[in-house]
Design goal:
By secondary structure, the chain is mainly α. Helices cover 51% and strands 0% of the residues.
């Protein structure tokens, strides 16, 4: 039952169509600086469960690889969920991200996306 809900939610989120998040226009920080900041956030906060780079497997097999996550979640939806406190079916640590951190992480995710 939970798996069916997750699949349904993923299909729904993938169907949402909107332009990519333009983080540079909002924050005034260069795209390269945001990507570097986002990579640092991913490595420090997320790498214990997720594959956060352009290759490799997630340490937790149930955790999606960051390089493919935007094929399942639209960037704007994920951005909003990170701001509000993402709710997923598997246990995740509690964390709070400020808007600048969320923008940086989204910019990094967009920079490493691959279809698998």
């Amino acid at each position: 039952m939970i798996r069916a809900c997750i699949v349904t939610a993923a299909v729904f989120l993938a169907a949402c169509a909107a332009p990519p998040v333009n983080t540079e226009a909002v924050s005034g920080v260069s795209q390269q600086d945001q990507i570097a900041d986002g990579r640092e956030i991913a490595e420090n906060q997320c790498a214990s469960c997720h594959a956060v780079g352009e290759s490799g497997e997630s340490p937790n097999p149930r955790a999606p690889k960051f390089r493919t996550v935007l094929s399942r979640y639209h960037a704007e939806v994920l951005q909003q969920e990170l701001m509000e406190g993402i709710q997923v079916a598997h246990p995740m640590p509690d964390f709070q991200m400020n808007p600048v951190g969320v923008d940086a992480l989204i910019a990094y995710l967009q920079s490493i996306q691959k279809s698998e």
